[in-house]
Design a protein that fits this description.
Blueprint: H1 3-17, H2 23-62, E1 65-69, E2 81-82, H3 85-92, E3 97-111, E4 116-124, H4 131-135, E5 137-140, E6 153-157, H5 158-164, E7 171-177, E8 181-192, H6 197-200, E9 203-207, H7 208-215, E10 221-222, E11 224-229, H8 235-246, E12 257-261, H9 262-265, H10 267-305, H11 307-315, H12 320-356, H13 363-366, H14 377-396, H15 407-410
Parallel strand pairs: 4-9, 6-8
Antiparallel strand pairs: 1-11, 1-12, 2-10, 3-4, 3-7, 3-11, 5-8, 7-8
Helix pairs in contact: 1-12, 2-10, 2-12, 2-14, 10-14, 12-14
């Protein structure tokens, strides 16, 4: 054990339990570090949780990657592409692809006796992953839709159901305009709500066969293919791989395949989410600064209070570097204690919110009903390491005050 470490432990023990003048300053420094770290942990957990929830809802409606008809980008009408089993097998064989599913969309109108509502009918096949809609299902069920037979069943969102005063079991009439007006009666089998208003106010789910028939498409033609990935963090890499396979290739009906990922399809939302990272950086800088400056004030008070001890150590032959290390070690002990309390309080509050949803949000503005929490242990560890390093580095400058203390003048008051 070095002399600096030993003396630092003695000073820390006395300051922690005694009644020195420095005790209030030490307490303030501890509180500053604990509060700063607590706020950083909560901020990061909330932002990561919020981004994850919003991203999950967007990908729940449209998956991670979509393959559609390039001509559909230049038209308000849905344009088909041919998706045969061989193409689906090739896509599914890619290591980054977890699931492949077809879909077809058809714009239309729901009309009741006293109201009507524009919507997009989304036809899905038997291979479609229904887990997202199942997790947001409020009433009824989500049928196992077919691609070979019309079910005449539909799943609608709660906002549409409320607006049109509909419930599970009701029969509705949907209208589609093409060469002429086509009417399809359907029975409501389920009601879902994701609180993502852009999509809740738009999509109805039905079988792929009905949507294709309404579009008058050939067998095998669909609006597109949705790909779920094994790792969302490799979205760009997966997009490039899939694009190299099928991008700008033409099917036998003249449809051009075009690959886009979910971030390219929803740039405004993901730009908004990326702005949250800037807010986190600002908060981390401010809180680290607060913690560091409270430590500086506490260290200066400790140095002034221990002026006599510094003078004695110098008289006994200790150099400035050794004495500075004493007080830097002392600061590390103090910072460590504050960080311990900050972690305990911050993680406890995060756990309480994640389990009991005490703080709620307005879904109309935030897309979710309560403040989301996502604990990312590597990120929390980096925050702790960063806080410790920055705080100690900020104390190196003030520790040079020790070099200004002379043994003769300091021991005069002993």
């Amino acid at each position: 054990m070095s002399l600096s470490f030993f003396l630092a432990r003695r000073i820390y023990g006395e300051t922690d339990g005694g009644k020195q003048v420095s005790r209030p300053a030490v307490l303030i420094a501890l509180i500053g570090i604990a509060i700063g770290l607590m706020i950083m942990i909560i901020t990061v957990a909330v932002v990561i949780g919020f981004k994850r929830e919003v991203t999950n809802k967007i990908t729940g409606f449209g998956s991670d990657i979509q393959i559609t008809n390039f001509d559909a980008l230049r038209s308000f009408e849905t344009r088909p592409i041919l998706v045969e089993d061989s193409l689906r097998d090739v896509l599914a064989s890619q290591s980054l692809v977890k699931h492949v599913q077809r879909y077809t969309t058809k714009p239309g109108i729901i009309k009741t006796d006293d109201a009507f509502q524009g919507m997009v009918l989304k036809g899905i096949g038997p291979e479609y992953d229904r887990s997202f809609f199942q997790s947001h299902l409020l009433e009824g069920e989500i049928p196992l839709f077919s691609d070979t037979i019309a079910s005449n069943e539909v799943v609608i969102s709660k906002p549409i159901a409320d607006k049109l005063r509909l419930k599970v079991g009701d029969r509705i009439f949907t209208y589609f305009v093409q060469d002429n007006v086509r009417v399809r009666p359907m029975t409501i089998k389920g009601i879902y709500q994701t609180n993502f208003s852009e999509y809740d106010n738009l999509f109805l789910l039905t079988d792929l066969y009905t949507a294709n028939r309404l579009n008058n498409w050939e067998e095998g033609q669909v609006s597109g293919v949705e790909l779920q990935l094994t790792d969302y963090n490799r979205l760009e890499e997966a997009t490039d791989i899939i694009a190299e396979m099928v991008d700008n290739r033409m099917d036998k009906y003249g449809g051009n395949y075009y690959v886009q990922n979910i971030e390219e399809l929803n740039p405004q939302i993901f730009e908004w989410l990326s702005l949250l990272d800037l807010n986190v950086i600002v908060i981390l800088i401010l809180m680290t600064g607060v913690a560091g400056f409270t430590m500086i004030s506490g260290l200066l008070i400790i140095i002034i209070e221990r002026t006599n001890m510094i003078g004695i150590l110098k008289a006994l032959g200790a150099d400035n570097y050794t004495i500075r290390k004493v007080f830097l070690w002392f600061s590390v002990f103090l910072i460590g204690k504050g960080m311990l309390w900050g972690n305990v309080i911050g993680l406890s509050l995060c756990f309480i919110q994640s389990q009991f949803k005490l703080i709620s949000l307005d879904p109309a503005n935030y897309y979710i009903e309560s403040v989301p929490i996502a604990i990312n242990l590597p990120v929390i560890l980096l925050i702790n390491i960063g806080t410790l390093l920055v705080s100690v580095l900020m104390l190196i400058g003030p520790s040079f005050l020790i070099t200004k203390i002379h043994p003769a003048s300091s021991m005069r008051y002993e």
